[in-house]
Amino acid sequence: MFSKRGVIFAAIAAAGLVGLAACGKKEEPVKPAVKAETPKPAPLKIAFAYVGPVGDGGWTFAHDNGRKAAIKEFGDRIQTSFVENVPESADAERVIRDMASQGNKLVFGTTFGYMEPMLKVAGEFKEVRFEHATGFKSADNMRAYDVRAYEGAYVAGVIAGKMTKSNTLGFVASIPIPEVVRNINAFTLGAQSVNPKVKTKVVWVNKWFDPGKEAEAATALINGGADILLQNTDSSAVLQTAEKMGKYAFGWDSDMTAYGPKAHLASSIINWGPYYKKAIKDVLDGTWTVEANWWGMKQGAIDVVSISDVVPAEVKKLAEDKKAEIREGKFSIWTGPLTDNTGKQVLAKDTTGDDKFVASIMFFVKGVEGKVPSGK
């Protein structure tokens, strides 16, 4: 028989075994709390209004290349769309308003005639940022941007002045606004810098994109004695016409070599990519402000490319040297003495025209025939 003491000991021992068994039970590890992922920001919606078709080979094609460069830069941080062939009329206001209404927070209007419609829409959509190409008006949420296309026109003029046999150049012009007039003048001044005998004939088509009218204007200029053409219109029709008629011409806004390889002397191109990247980054970073943006060769926005092999090596060097001087700020196209084609002095000797002067040019320099249309 167990003594009472033995019973008590057995009970204590049994309790201990139960406790040990309990202590030996495997505990499940405590899983750390899963941290919720930060939701990815929605892409910045951006819209572009184009005055011509993206396949025009010139102005709108260059803008669309700039849009594509921005996509490559920012990837899925942005979402872009565009509407092409938007006329400079009441339709522009409707299209720009639709873009703002559809959730786009950045809207680019890519031609001068969109200025007033965009300004009106900007007043209605204060949370949207608007960018207007080649204009001069702004608002709290709208700014203008432009390129110094006249720099490319001047370098093209240097080549033309050396290559012309008739000493008569032709210029197919679109709309009589300072943007176009200063390109005509710069082309002429560039040519006269190497050939003082040069004169320039101008035909106005009063449209940015009309291949038929552009071709007719080019034909008229060639029939009038011009053997080298430049344009401030948006299609490749001028170069193609020169090709058909056995004359020379330049590409404009984009590299147009393929449209008339025998006629093509060089192309004055616009690279909108650097500016579009800057503007989009401004919005993404919250640093967008109303400021002046007028870019040229210095910023990589303007260049003269694909100079033809028919251009002698010494002329190519002249063009490249002038590009370098412009890019480095060592040369200003608008330096006096400068007179208009009536003999009136517009810049005194050793005086350089500032941006205000350049932006308001509405006269022809000496050597350009005719008068600037009033536009009325």
Please tell me about this protein's structure:
The chain has eleven helices and 14 strands. Strand 13 and strand 14 form a beta hairpin. The longest helix has 20 residues, at 4-23. The protein folds into two domains: 44-148 and 273-298, Rossmann fold (3-Layer(aba) Sandwich); 149-269 and 302-359, Rossmann fold. It is of the alpha/beta class. Mean pLDDT is 92; it is low at 1-25. It has helices at 4-23, 59-74, 90-101, 115-122, 149-163, 178-192, 211-223, 237-244, 273-285, 313-327, 355-359, and strands at residues 44-49, 78-83, 106-109, 129-133, 142-147, 168-173, 199-204, 228-231, 248-253, 264-270, 293-295, 302-305, 338-339, 345-347. The strands form three sheets. The chain has a six-stranded parallel beta sheet with strand order 2-1-3-4-5-11, with helices on both faces. The chain has a six-stranded mixed beta sheet with strand order 7-6-8-9-10-12, with helices on both faces. Strands 13-14 form a two-stranded antiparallel sheet.
Spatial arrangement of strands, main beta sheet: 2-1-3-4-5-11
> Might you state the CATH topology name of the largest domain?
Rossmann fold
Largest sheet, in brief, is: 6 strands, parallel
Helix content: 25-40%
Taking Cα atoms only, what radius of gyration do you get, to the nearest Å? 33 Å
Secondary structure elements and pairings:
Blueprint: H1 4-23, E1 44-49, H2 59-74, E2 78-83, H3 90-101, E3 106-109, H4 115-122, E4 129-133, E5 142-147, H5 149-163, E6 168-173, H6 178-192, E7 199-204, H7 211-223, E8 228-231, H8 237-244, E9 248-253, E10 264-270, H9 273-285, E11 293-295, E12 302-305, H10 313-327, E13 338-339, E14 345-347, H11 355-359
Parallel strand pairs: 1-2, 1-3, 3-4, 4-5, 5-11, 6-7, 6-8, 8-9, 9-10
Antiparallel strand pairs: 10-12, 13-14
